[in-house]
TrEMBL record:
Coiled-coil features, chain-numbered ranges: none
Keywords: Membrane, Transmembrane, Transmembrane helix
PANTHER family associated with the record: FE(2+)/MN(2+) TRANSPORTER PCL1
Membrane topology of this protein: Multi-pass membrane protein
Name of the featured protein: VIT family protein
InterPro entries reported in the protein's UniProt record: Ccc1_fam
CDD domains cross-referenced by the UniProt entry: Nodulin-21_like_1
Location of this chain's protein in the cell: Endomembrane system
One Pfam family linked to the record: VIT1
């Protein structure tokens, strides 16, 4: 008899948002690092092959650097989450009364009477003790950990995709459109990443967009100036 594979647990909203966050940050870094190199090199030389190779090399370096950083960061977070679960597993065995008190306090802060809160705590800890403690103390779901591979691949792809915009504009647009086209491509791209970051972080969209565009313009200006020195 063939065994059916267990279904993979669906990602929580936090897991999905973490992957999207890595993607947005990766895209923004890809855009700015690549355009920085492109402007420096293009201001120093008109050789299209040199400009393209410099931009492409930086795009790949940025993409893999962002992916590696996300993998290391989220792996550390995952290890911390697992350590927290093991800590609560031990506390349920050694300090059960304190765990009951913690659940009771949680529900009392929500306006539940002490007697009812104690009854809820006893019931929850009798049925799903570890799940209850992880949820109440750390706002986590047992068995759901941040996936470092999801964050790494999201960052790798988005950083590559983000860097493509200035690279294509600078190397393939006609000479008359090269500089204004690249500036426009970068400005629109960072405006989009600013918008997405504000939506994901529930921040002020207008402020995030304006901030990103200003940072993009400053980045282009500084690197262009550096290129003119050589």
């Amino acid at each position: 008899m063939s065994k059916t594979k267990p279904k993979k647990a669906k990602q929580t909203m936090d897991e999905k948002l973490n992957t999207l966050r890595a993607g947005v940050l990766g895209s923004n870094d890809g855009i700015l690092t690549v355009v920085g190199v492109l402007f420096s090199v293009a201001a120093a030389t008109s050789n299209q092959f040199t400009i393209f190779i410099a931009g492409l090399s930086d795009l790949l370096a940025c993409a893999f650097s962002m992916a590696g950083g996300e993998y290391a960061s989220v792996s550390t977070q995952k290890d911390t989450e697992k350590a927290v679960v093991e800590k609560e597993r031990r506390l349920l065995k050694t300090n059960y009364a304190d765990e009951v008190a913690a659940v009771k306090r949680h529900y009392m802060t929500m306006g539940v009477t002490e007697k009812t809160a104690l009854a809820i705590a006893d019931d929850l800890l009798a049925k799903k003790p570890l799940e209850t403690m992880i949820s109440i103390k750390y706002d986590m779901q047992l068995g759901h950990y941040m996936n470092p591979w999801d964050a790494a691949f999201s960052s790798l792809f988005s950083a590559s995709a983000g860097g493509v915009f200035p690279l294509v504009a600078m190397t393939f647009l006609p000479d008359a459109m090269k500089w204004p086209g690249t500036i426009l491509a970068v400005s629109l791209s960072v405006a989009l990443t600013g918008y997405l970051s504000a939506v994901l972080g529930k921040g002020n969209v207008k402020t995030a967009v304006i901030r990103n565009v200003i940072v993009g313009i400053i980045t282009m200006f500084i690197h262009y100036y550096i290129g003119t020195l050589f």
